[in-house]
Amino acid sequence: MSRGNYLFTSESVSEGHPDKVCDRISDAVVDLYLAADPLSRVACETLVTTNRIVLAGEVRGPESVTSEAIEEAARRAVREIGYEQKGFHWELAEFQNYLHEQSIDIARGVDADTDKDEGAGDQGIMFGYACRETEPLMPAPIYYSHRILHEMAKARHAGRTPELGPDSKSQVTLVYEDGQPVRADSVVVSTQHDEEASSERVEEIVRSFIEDVMPDGWVNGGTKFYVNPTGRFVIGGPDGDTGLTGRKIIVDTYGGAAPHGGGAFSGKDPTKVDRSAAYAARYLAKNVVAAGLADKCTLQVSYAIGVSQPLSLYADLHGTGKVPEDKLEHALRKVMDLSPRGIREHLGLSRPIYERTAAYGHFGRQPENDGGFSWERLDLVEPIRGELSQHVPSFGTR
Question: Which strand ranges, in their side-by-side order, compose the sheet holding 41-49?
Fold first, then answer.
Protein backbone atom coordinates (compact mmCIF):
# COMPACT_ATOMS: atom_id res chain seq x y z
CA MET A 1 0.00 0.00 0.00
CA SER A 2 1.41 3.40 -0.96
CA ARG A 3 1.80 6.11 1.63
CA GLY A 4 -0.87 8.78 1.76
CA ASN A 5 0.76 11.38 4.01
CA TYR A 6 4.26 12.64 3.26
CA LEU A 7 6.45 15.52 2.09
CA PHE A 8 7.75 15.63 -1.49
CA THR A 9 10.24 18.07 -3.00
CA SER A 10 11.17 19.13 -6.53
CA GLU A 11 13.54 21.79 -7.80
CA SER A 12 13.82 23.98 -10.87
CA VAL A 13 16.53 26.22 -12.28
CA SER A 14 16.15 29.32 -14.43
CA GLU A 15 17.25 29.98 -18.00
CA GLY A 16 20.31 31.75 -16.57
CA HIS A 17 21.56 28.74 -14.62
CA PRO A 18 24.87 27.64 -16.21
CA ASP A 19 23.55 24.23 -17.23
CA LYS A 20 20.44 25.77 -18.71
CA VAL A 21 22.51 28.29 -20.68
CA CYS A 22 24.17 25.25 -22.25
CA ASP A 23 20.86 23.52 -22.92
CA ARG A 24 19.58 26.63 -24.66
CA ILE A 25 22.68 27.06 -26.82
CA SER A 26 22.58 23.39 -27.81
CA ASP A 27 18.91 23.63 -28.73
CA ALA A 28 19.53 26.86 -30.64
CA VAL A 29 21.96 24.85 -32.78
CA VAL A 30 19.34 22.12 -33.26
CA ASP A 31 16.80 24.71 -34.39
CA LEU A 32 19.31 26.33 -36.73
CA TYR A 33 19.88 23.03 -38.53
CA LEU A 34 16.23 21.99 -38.61
CA ALA A 35 15.22 25.38 -40.03
CA ALA A 36 17.67 24.81 -42.87
CA ASP A 37 16.81 21.13 -43.39
CA PRO A 38 14.19 19.21 -41.39
CA LEU A 39 16.18 16.00 -41.87
CA SER A 40 19.35 17.36 -40.27
CA ARG A 41 21.06 15.29 -37.60
CA VAL A 42 22.40 17.09 -34.55
CA ALA A 43 24.01 16.01 -31.29
CA CYS A 44 25.39 19.21 -29.82
CA GLU A 45 27.01 19.53 -26.40
CA THR A 46 27.88 22.90 -24.88
CA LEU A 47 30.21 23.95 -22.06
CA VAL A 48 30.22 27.42 -20.57
CA THR A 49 32.49 28.96 -17.97
CA THR A 50 33.91 32.40 -17.27
CA ASN A 51 33.69 34.25 -20.62
CA ARG A 52 33.99 31.06 -22.63
CA ILE A 53 31.53 29.05 -24.76
CA VAL A 54 32.62 25.68 -26.19
CA LEU A 55 30.59 23.49 -28.55
CA ALA A 56 31.31 19.88 -29.48
CA GLY A 57 29.38 17.05 -31.06
CA GLU A 58 28.23 15.52 -34.31
CA VAL A 59 26.08 16.99 -37.06
CA ARG A 60 24.85 16.26 -40.55
CA GLY A 61 23.15 19.06 -42.39
CA PRO A 62 23.34 21.64 -45.16
CA GLU A 63 26.49 23.65 -45.80
CA SER A 64 24.45 26.81 -45.37
CA VAL A 65 24.72 26.25 -41.61
CA THR A 66 28.18 27.72 -41.25
CA SER A 67 30.37 28.02 -38.20
CA GLU A 68 29.64 31.75 -38.26
CA ALA A 69 25.90 31.10 -38.18
CA ILE A 70 26.32 28.69 -35.27
CA GLU A 71 28.34 31.25 -33.32
CA GLU A 72 25.74 33.91 -34.01
CA ALA A 73 22.97 31.63 -32.73
CA ALA A 74 24.91 30.83 -29.57
CA ARG A 75 25.66 34.48 -28.79
CA ARG A 76 22.06 35.48 -29.49
CA ALA A 77 20.81 32.86 -27.03
CA VAL A 78 23.13 34.19 -24.32
CA ARG A 79 22.11 37.78 -25.05
CA GLU A 80 18.41 36.95 -24.83
CA ILE A 81 18.92 35.25 -21.48
CA GLY A 82 20.41 38.52 -20.29
CA TYR A 83 24.13 37.98 -19.78
CA GLU A 84 26.08 41.20 -20.19
CA GLN A 85 28.23 40.77 -17.11
CA LYS A 86 31.95 41.20 -16.68
CA GLY A 87 32.51 37.48 -16.11
CA PHE A 88 30.11 36.29 -18.82
CA HIS A 89 29.09 38.53 -21.70
CA TRP A 90 27.27 37.42 -24.82
CA GLU A 91 29.49 39.53 -27.08
CA LEU A 92 32.86 39.25 -25.34
CA ALA A 93 32.98 35.55 -24.40
CA GLU A 94 35.50 33.46 -26.33
CA PHE A 95 33.72 31.01 -28.64
CA GLN A 96 35.07 27.63 -29.80
CA ASN A 97 33.25 25.24 -32.12
CA TYR A 98 34.26 21.58 -32.32
CA LEU A 99 31.15 20.23 -34.04
CA HIS A 100 32.01 17.67 -36.74
CA GLU A 101 30.34 15.24 -39.12
CA GLN A 102 28.15 12.46 -37.73
CA SER A 103 29.71 8.99 -37.62
CA ILE A 104 28.81 6.92 -40.70
CA ASP A 105 28.32 3.90 -38.41
CA ILE A 106 25.61 5.71 -36.45
CA ALA A 107 24.08 7.07 -39.64
CA ARG A 108 23.91 3.54 -41.10
CA GLY A 109 21.79 2.36 -38.17
CA VAL A 110 19.43 5.31 -38.23
CA ASP A 111 18.88 5.99 -41.93
CA ALA A 112 16.02 4.36 -43.80
CA ASP A 113 16.68 2.47 -47.04
CA THR A 114 14.81 0.12 -49.35
CA ASP A 115 15.09 -2.76 -46.88
CA LYS A 116 14.23 -1.07 -43.58
CA ASP A 117 12.52 1.89 -41.98
CA GLU A 118 14.38 4.57 -40.07
CA GLY A 119 15.87 3.10 -36.91
CA ALA A 120 16.34 4.49 -33.43
CA GLY A 121 19.43 6.65 -32.99
CA ASP A 122 20.50 4.72 -29.90
CA GLN A 123 19.39 2.06 -27.48
CA GLY A 124 17.71 3.16 -24.28
CA ILE A 125 14.62 3.44 -22.11
CA MET A 126 12.33 6.46 -21.91
CA PHE A 127 9.49 7.31 -19.54
CA GLY A 128 6.35 9.38 -19.68
CA TYR A 129 4.14 10.41 -16.78
CA ALA A 130 0.94 12.28 -16.01
CA CYS A 131 -1.19 12.78 -12.91
CA ARG A 132 -4.14 14.85 -11.73
CA GLU A 133 -2.29 17.11 -9.28
CA THR A 134 -2.38 20.18 -11.56
CA GLU A 135 -4.38 21.37 -14.56
CA PRO A 136 -1.58 20.46 -17.05
CA LEU A 137 -1.53 16.95 -15.46
CA MET A 138 1.92 17.45 -13.97
CA PRO A 139 3.22 16.72 -10.46
CA ALA A 140 2.60 19.79 -8.32
CA PRO A 141 6.10 20.26 -6.79
CA ILE A 142 7.90 20.59 -10.14
CA TYR A 143 5.04 22.54 -11.71
CA TYR A 144 5.15 25.27 -9.06
CA SER A 145 8.95 25.25 -8.89
CA HIS A 146 9.00 26.05 -12.61
CA ARG A 147 6.27 28.67 -12.39
CA ILE A 148 7.99 30.67 -9.65
CA LEU A 149 11.16 31.03 -11.71
CA HIS A 150 9.33 31.57 -14.99
CA GLU A 151 7.31 34.44 -13.54
CA MET A 152 10.47 35.94 -12.03
CA ALA A 153 12.19 35.73 -15.42
CA LYS A 154 9.29 37.39 -17.23
CA ALA A 155 9.37 40.26 -14.74
CA ARG A 156 13.13 40.62 -15.15
CA HIS A 157 12.88 40.74 -18.94
CA ALA A 158 10.11 43.31 -18.66
CA GLY A 159 12.33 45.53 -16.51
CA ARG A 160 10.13 45.22 -13.41
CA THR A 161 12.85 43.66 -11.21
CA PRO A 162 16.14 45.30 -12.26
CA GLU A 163 17.78 44.16 -9.02
CA LEU A 164 17.72 40.50 -10.08
CA GLY A 165 20.09 38.65 -12.39
CA PRO A 166 19.49 35.74 -14.78
CA ASP A 167 20.69 32.90 -12.54
CA SER A 168 18.22 31.44 -10.05
CA LYS A 169 17.01 28.20 -8.49
CA SER A 170 13.84 27.15 -6.71
CA GLN A 171 12.81 24.21 -4.58
CA VAL A 172 9.27 23.47 -3.42
CA THR A 173 8.36 20.97 -0.70
CA LEU A 174 4.66 20.13 -0.53
CA VAL A 175 2.61 18.38 2.13
CA TYR A 176 0.60 15.44 0.79
CA GLU A 177 -2.46 14.16 2.63
CA ASP A 178 -4.28 11.08 1.37
CA GLY A 179 -1.98 11.19 -1.64
CA GLN A 180 -2.87 14.73 -2.69
CA PRO A 181 -0.86 17.97 -2.31
CA VAL A 182 -2.54 20.34 0.13
CA ARG A 183 -0.03 23.04 1.13
CA ALA A 184 3.58 24.21 0.95
CA ASP A 185 5.82 23.07 3.76
CA SER A 186 8.84 25.05 2.50
CA VAL A 187 9.96 27.06 -0.50
CA VAL A 188 13.60 27.79 -1.35
CA VAL A 189 14.63 30.40 -3.92
CA SER A 190 18.17 31.53 -4.62
CA THR A 191 18.50 34.34 -7.14
CA GLN A 192 21.38 36.33 -8.50
CA HIS A 193 21.15 40.03 -7.67
CA ASP A 194 23.15 43.21 -8.08
CA GLU A 195 25.59 44.60 -5.54
CA GLU A 196 23.23 47.25 -4.24
CA ALA A 197 20.22 45.01 -3.53
CA SER A 198 19.80 44.24 0.16
CA SER A 199 18.82 40.80 1.39
CA GLU A 200 15.56 42.27 2.63
CA ARG A 201 14.74 43.70 -0.80
CA VAL A 202 15.55 40.44 -2.58
CA GLU A 203 13.36 38.49 -0.15
CA GLU A 204 10.52 40.97 -0.61
CA ILE A 205 10.65 40.54 -4.38
CA VAL A 206 10.88 36.77 -4.26
CA ARG A 207 8.13 36.31 -1.65
CA SER A 208 5.71 38.22 -3.86
CA PHE A 209 6.24 35.76 -6.73
CA ILE A 210 5.88 32.74 -4.47
CA GLU A 211 2.62 34.01 -3.04
CA ASP A 212 1.25 34.90 -6.47
CA VAL A 213 2.09 31.50 -7.98
CA MET A 214 1.07 29.08 -5.25
CA PRO A 215 -2.61 28.12 -4.96
CA ASP A 216 -4.76 29.95 -2.43
CA GLY A 217 -4.20 28.66 1.07
CA TRP A 218 -1.08 26.67 0.25
CA VAL A 219 1.23 29.34 1.71
CA ASN A 220 0.43 30.13 5.33
CA GLY A 221 2.04 30.91 8.66
CA GLY A 222 3.55 27.44 8.81
CA THR A 223 5.33 27.70 5.46
CA LYS A 224 9.10 28.02 5.74
CA PHE A 225 10.84 30.41 3.32
CA TYR A 226 14.52 30.32 2.42
CA VAL A 227 15.52 33.16 0.09
CA ASN A 228 19.24 33.26 -0.79
CA PRO A 229 20.18 31.20 2.27
CA THR A 230 23.87 32.12 1.91
CA GLY A 231 22.92 35.80 2.13
CA ARG A 232 24.64 36.93 -1.09
CA PHE A 233 24.42 35.84 -4.72
CA VAL A 234 26.09 38.49 -6.88
CA ILE A 235 28.51 36.32 -8.87
CA GLY A 236 26.35 33.85 -10.76
CA GLY A 237 25.82 32.13 -14.07
CA PRO A 238 28.77 30.62 -15.93
CA ASP A 239 31.15 33.00 -14.14
CA GLY A 240 30.21 31.40 -10.84
CA ASP A 241 29.85 27.78 -11.93
CA THR A 242 30.67 25.82 -15.08
CA GLY A 243 27.68 24.62 -17.09
CA LEU A 244 27.18 21.61 -19.33
CA THR A 245 24.36 20.42 -21.57
CA GLY A 246 22.10 17.72 -20.15
CA ARG A 247 22.82 18.00 -16.44
CA LYS A 248 19.30 18.97 -15.36
CA ILE A 249 17.29 16.05 -16.71
CA ILE A 250 15.08 15.68 -13.62
CA VAL A 251 14.31 19.40 -13.76
CA ASP A 252 13.41 18.89 -17.43
CA THR A 253 10.86 16.15 -16.70
CA TYR A 254 8.88 15.34 -13.55
CA GLY A 255 11.00 16.58 -10.66
CA GLY A 256 11.68 13.07 -9.39
CA ALA A 257 8.00 12.13 -9.12
CA ALA A 258 8.41 9.60 -11.94
CA PRO A 259 11.29 7.51 -13.35
CA HIS A 260 13.73 8.91 -15.88
CA GLY A 261 15.50 6.90 -18.53
CA GLY A 262 18.76 8.78 -18.11
CA GLY A 263 19.09 10.42 -21.52
CA ALA A 264 19.11 14.20 -21.83
CA PHE A 265 16.90 16.00 -24.34
CA SER A 266 18.64 19.23 -25.28
CA GLY A 267 21.02 19.35 -28.20
CA LYS A 268 19.45 16.35 -29.94
CA ASP A 269 17.44 16.25 -33.15
CA PRO A 270 14.17 14.24 -33.07
CA THR A 271 15.66 11.06 -34.57
CA LYS A 272 17.24 10.61 -31.14
CA VAL A 273 14.68 8.63 -29.14
CA ASP A 274 16.11 10.00 -25.90
CA ARG A 275 14.15 13.07 -26.86
CA SER A 276 11.36 12.08 -29.23
CA ALA A 277 10.27 8.90 -27.45
CA ALA A 278 10.23 10.67 -24.08
CA TYR A 279 7.96 13.27 -25.66
CA ALA A 280 5.75 10.51 -27.10
CA ALA A 281 5.56 8.74 -23.73
CA ARG A 282 4.46 11.96 -22.02
CA TYR A 283 1.93 12.57 -24.80
CA LEU A 284 0.38 9.13 -24.37
CA ALA A 285 0.43 9.22 -20.56
CA LYS A 286 -1.24 12.65 -20.53
CA ASN A 287 -3.97 11.49 -22.89
CA VAL A 288 -4.57 8.37 -20.79
CA VAL A 289 -5.16 10.47 -17.67
CA ALA A 290 -7.18 13.08 -19.55
CA ALA A 291 -9.35 10.27 -20.92
CA GLY A 292 -10.35 9.34 -17.37
CA LEU A 293 -8.65 5.95 -17.55
CA ALA A 294 -6.46 6.59 -14.49
CA ASP A 295 -5.45 9.27 -12.02
CA LYS A 296 -1.76 8.49 -12.59
CA CYS A 297 0.01 6.90 -15.52
CA THR A 298 3.65 5.95 -16.00
CA LEU A 299 4.77 4.60 -19.37
CA GLN A 300 8.11 3.06 -20.26
CA VAL A 301 9.26 2.46 -23.83
CA SER A 302 12.55 0.90 -24.95
CA TYR A 303 14.55 0.88 -28.18
CA ALA A 304 17.58 -0.69 -29.83
CA ILE A 305 19.86 1.29 -32.13
CA GLY A 306 18.94 0.83 -35.77
CA VAL A 307 15.65 -0.94 -34.94
CA SER A 308 12.46 0.86 -35.89
CA GLN A 309 9.75 -0.39 -33.54
CA PRO A 310 10.15 -0.22 -29.76
CA LEU A 311 11.20 -3.41 -28.02
CA SER A 312 8.69 -2.90 -25.22
CA LEU A 313 5.90 -0.67 -23.95
CA TYR A 314 4.98 -0.89 -20.26
CA ALA A 315 2.13 0.88 -18.47
CA ASP A 316 1.70 1.39 -14.73
CA LEU A 317 -1.54 3.03 -13.55
CA HIS A 318 -0.49 2.97 -9.89
CA GLY A 319 -3.63 1.23 -8.72
CA THR A 320 -5.85 4.01 -10.10
CA GLY A 321 -6.68 2.44 -13.46
CA LYS A 322 -10.11 1.72 -14.87
CA VAL A 323 -8.79 -0.60 -17.59
CA PRO A 324 -6.35 -3.55 -17.53
CA GLU A 325 -2.82 -2.30 -18.08
CA ASP A 326 -2.01 -4.95 -20.69
CA LYS A 327 -5.06 -3.88 -22.71
CA LEU A 328 -3.95 -0.26 -22.42
CA GLU A 329 -0.49 -1.13 -23.72
CA HIS A 330 -2.06 -2.79 -26.76
CA ALA A 331 -4.37 0.17 -27.35
CA LEU A 332 -1.54 2.71 -27.19
CA ARG A 333 0.42 0.84 -29.85
CA LYS A 334 -2.64 1.01 -32.10
CA VAL A 335 -3.35 4.73 -31.72
CA MET A 336 0.25 5.83 -32.32
CA ASP A 337 3.17 4.52 -34.36
CA LEU A 338 6.04 4.56 -31.89
CA SER A 339 8.80 4.16 -34.45
CA PRO A 340 11.17 7.15 -34.61
CA ARG A 341 9.64 8.17 -37.93
CA GLY A 342 6.10 7.64 -36.63
CA ILE A 343 6.71 9.78 -33.54
CA ARG A 344 8.38 12.53 -35.53
CA GLU A 345 5.60 12.72 -38.08
CA HIS A 346 2.72 12.38 -35.59
CA LEU A 347 4.02 15.16 -33.34
CA GLY A 348 5.58 17.28 -36.10
CA LEU A 349 8.99 17.23 -34.47
CA SER A 350 11.20 18.00 -37.48
CA ARG A 351 10.80 21.73 -36.93
CA PRO A 352 12.81 24.42 -35.14
CA ILE A 353 10.79 24.24 -31.91
CA TYR A 354 13.38 23.25 -29.33
CA GLU A 355 15.16 26.32 -28.00
CA ARG A 356 12.00 27.31 -26.12
CA THR A 357 12.02 23.96 -24.27
CA ALA A 358 15.42 24.50 -22.71
CA ALA A 359 14.17 26.10 -19.47
CA TYR A 360 11.13 25.73 -17.19
CA GLY A 361 10.40 22.17 -18.21
CA HIS A 362 9.72 20.24 -21.38
CA PHE A 363 6.35 19.11 -20.03
CA GLY A 364 3.27 20.82 -18.65
CA ARG A 365 3.49 23.67 -21.18
CA GLN A 366 0.81 24.89 -23.57
CA PRO A 367 0.85 23.55 -27.17
CA GLU A 368 1.76 26.37 -29.55
CA ASN A 369 0.42 27.27 -32.96
CA ASP A 370 3.70 26.55 -34.77
CA GLY A 371 3.93 23.03 -33.33
CA GLY A 372 5.87 23.80 -30.19
CA PHE A 373 5.05 21.48 -27.28
CA SER A 374 2.88 19.35 -29.57
CA TRP A 375 3.34 16.46 -27.13
CA GLU A 376 1.08 18.33 -24.68
CA ARG A 377 -1.96 18.03 -26.98
CA LEU A 378 -5.00 16.04 -25.86
CA ASP A 379 -6.08 14.82 -29.28
CA LEU A 380 -5.75 11.10 -28.50
CA VAL A 381 -8.36 11.03 -25.74
CA GLU A 382 -11.17 9.74 -27.97
CA PRO A 383 -9.05 7.30 -30.01
CA ILE A 384 -7.74 5.71 -26.79
CA ARG A 385 -11.22 5.48 -25.35
CA GLY A 386 -12.44 3.93 -28.58
CA GLU A 387 -9.77 1.23 -28.53
CA LEU A 388 -10.69 0.36 -24.94
CA SER A 389 -14.47 0.60 -25.23
CA GLN A 390 -14.90 -3.18 -25.24
CA HIS A 391 -13.21 -3.37 -21.86
CA VAL A 392 -14.95 -0.35 -20.30
CA PRO A 393 -18.06 0.45 -22.38
CA SER A 394 -18.56 3.83 -20.73
CA PHE A 395 -15.31 4.94 -22.37
CA GLY A 396 -16.56 4.33 -25.88
CA THR A 397 -16.10 7.06 -28.46
CA ARG A 398 -18.61 9.85 -27.91
Answer: 94-101, 52-60, 41-49, 243-244
